Amino acid sequence: MSVRATVLVIDSFGIGYAPDAERYGDVGANTALHICEKVPGEKWPALAGLGLGNASELLGNPLPGCPAADRPLASYGVMVERSPGKDTTTGHWEMAGIELARAFHTFPPAYPSFPAELVAAFEAEIGKKIIGNRAASGTVVIEELGEEHLRTGSPIAYTSGDSVFQIAAHEEVIPVEELYRICLIARRLCDPYQVGRVIARPFRGAPGSFVRTSGRRDFSIRLPSKSLLDHLQAAGVRTVGVGKIGDIFNEQGIDESFHDAGNPACLDRVSELLGRPRPPRGELVFVNLVDTDMIYGHRRDVPGYFGAVSAIDSRLPGFMEAMAPGDLLVVSADHGCDPTFRGSDHTRELVPLLVRRKGRPGRSLGIHDGFFDLAQTLAELFAAGPMPHGRSFAEDL
């Protein structure tokens, strides 16, 4: 029987600070719990029905307004990240079976953040000076430096608490395709420094009213090994990436890549994909839902974050209705970004694990030591042979 597994990653939807959170300054962070505490009333009925509250209670944290279900529709658990770091690439790669031995390189926050040799090489290749060269919020830095950028044509280069080299440019000063070209130059130059991502951040507008556009693109460092996507593809399983997935995995192991921008477009794409026939060997649909993190988590917008999760929640019943018997719907996250926590960076957190297998009752999956347990499980369910890391929980589904 052909099976489809749809994996929805609610970007940064952590469920409690990790055992090693002290190393990251993140003790006390809990994205899901703190949103539930700040927003009154009942919330996220579909996620509650799947067992989100049950998963949180495994950690001793009942979620106000999102209680544990008596008979959850999904099997529920929690995953602990083994790889060092708390960024998108690390989390997604581990979910796909890759464990990193060391964290990606991060730059110091104060000016000058980037090494002089890196800046000199980049400026020489693009024929322009950069401005910025420090850690900053993306929306703040274009407000502070956007006018200078318009006047000089210099791209705005900045970093954050993650391993990133970000380049912001007004679309009328540096067209989007040109921005992508210089990001590819930065990607090559950043490789020796083990930088996780180079990110293009185009924007529009006038001083005082700049707006970032949907043309963001992430250029990830080369994968250190094959992922679950490669593994399934080699076994004849169709692999589909939606949203940032193609960028995160450098299109490696992906048969179809849909670079839909924003959660509404990604959720619409999932509906479309669930309505088409399954291939003979099955299909994995891997989806990143970025708005929770990019628009609301980093800006510490609790109501906005809550609303973004609510919008995802409202689509889950339709997705489950479109599933055939034996199909899977997985809901998880890649890290945390607690909108009530200090600063504006990601938080080192455990992530929820909700696995709905149509026609099967939900049960507790417990706490899994490693995101890669999900990759091992999916490899077994697709009969693709074992992955190098992880413990399968397929028999519990």
Order of SSEs, N→C? Answer: EHHHEHHEHEEHEEEHEHEHEHHEEEH
Number of strands: 14
* End-to-end C-alpha gap: 16 Å
How much helix is in the residues? 25-40%
Give the helix/strand class.
alpha/beta
Low-confidence segments: none
Order of strands across the widest beta sheet? 10-9-11-1-12-13-2-14
Largest sheet report: 8 strands, mixed
The CATH architecture designation of the largest domain is 3-Layer(aba) Sandwich
Structure annotation, total helices: 13
Query: Could you tell me the mean pLDDT?
Result: 96
CATH class of the largest domain, please?
Answer: Alpha Beta
CATH homologous superfamily name of the largest domain? Alkaline Phosphatase, subunit A
Q: Determine the CATH topology of the largest domain.
A: Alkaline Phosphatase, subunit A
Dominant shape: globular
Beta-strand percent range: 15-25%
Gyration radius, rounded? 21 Å
Tell me the count of domains: 2
Summed up:
With 397 residues, this protein is α/β, with parallel strands linked by helices. Helix content is 33%, strand content 19%.
